[in-house]
Amino acid sequence: MALPAYRHLLRSITLAFRDDTRLLTSALSSARSNFESCRSLPPGDAATKVAHAEEVAEVLRRNVVQGMSEAKEGEKFQLRIHEHTERGSNETVKSTGQALMGAGVSGGCCGGGAAAASGPAA
Fold this sequence. Notes:
122 residues, mainly alpha, two-stranded antiparallel ribbon, 5 helices
């Protein structure tokens, strides 16, 4: 049960961070050390950790994309979107925005405009 989850996590890490050697090495090392530290867990706790590893692997595979600077000025970025990247429709974004406006929330994501208008947070 843990070995397939570990392999899935390693493949997802490799897919997500393929072109960033430093981050790829760090993520692979972190995954290994986390799995090694959980070797002696009781079966119930181990199942929870395995489920968490599977969830992390899915997030990495479907929701993480790399952005690499195209120009020397760093103003343009090329995104590496692969076949496993989750692509949402603009309709879901539009419907969420309409629902927020209907609820009286204004000014940016999560009511950010209202927070900015009241001044800096303490």
